[in-house]
Write a structure and sequence with these properties.
Length: 192
């Protein structure tokens, strides 16, 4: 069984746990999911989710609980991470916001709350590299990926990148855990 961790200092956690278990089953695996609120757990995890929520709060708690450096070590070891929405903001190289200490797990620049200016939240079917059918994507005050460095764009909406991969790390502007479709988790953790 795989040890899966969901960063749970703040944000939507149980939906990611369900999606991880579902993706594992679809790949003939099982996953034990642990909610992470303190240091010392990430080193035992095979894979990690960094959920959406409020990126400034998540960032502050990852630093004060000393979880942030453990996530960096996890990625340096080549183990997978799926970072969604606020998780993407924290995982990025730069979010242009002093209250967010970026972990630099993904070579992208993001802008908080800059996506979908007319409507704060919307849903759109997306074609995603590696998935044969469009993925139903929920955007909630989503970050804009404004610059992509050494990372692969997996999906675009309205001509803008909304899913990226940088080595073992996949980041999405949208919330793949909010639809009963675990294919993005499968892509991030099992490669297909
Ligand atoms: N707007 C949030 C932030 O900037 C992210 C939104 C989300 O995770 N749904 O932290």
């Amino acid at each position: 069984s795989l040890n899966a961790g969901v960063i749970a200092v703040q944000g939507d956690v149980s939906e990611h746990a369900d999606a991880i278990r579902q993706a594992a089953t679809a790949h003939g695996e099982t996953a034990d999911v642990t909610e992470i609120r303190q240091s010392g757990i990430v080193p035992d995890c095979d894979l990690l989710c960094m959920p959406g929520g409020e990126s400034t709060a998540i960032s502050r708690l990852l630093q004060s609980e000393e979880i942030a450096p453990e996530i960096q070590v996890h990625v340096e070891a080549g183990k997978p991470v799926l970072a969604t929405c606020a998780g993407l903001i924290v995982a990025a190289a730069d979010a242009g916001d002093d209250r967010v200490e970026n972990l630099g797990l993904l070579d992208v620049t993001v802008e908080r709350n800059a996506f979908g200016r007319q409507k704060d939240s919307f849903e759109a079917p997306l074609s995603v590299t590696g998935l044969s059918e469009p993925f139903p994507s929920v955007f909630i005050r989503a970050p804009l990926i404004s610059e992509v460095g050494d990372a692969e764009v997996l999906a675009e909406w309205d001509g803008r990148p909304v899913a990226v991969r940088d080595g073992p790390v996949v980041g999405t502007s949208f919330h793949p855990e909010l639809t009963p479709d675990s294919r993005i988790h499968g892509l991030a953790f099992f490669g297909d």
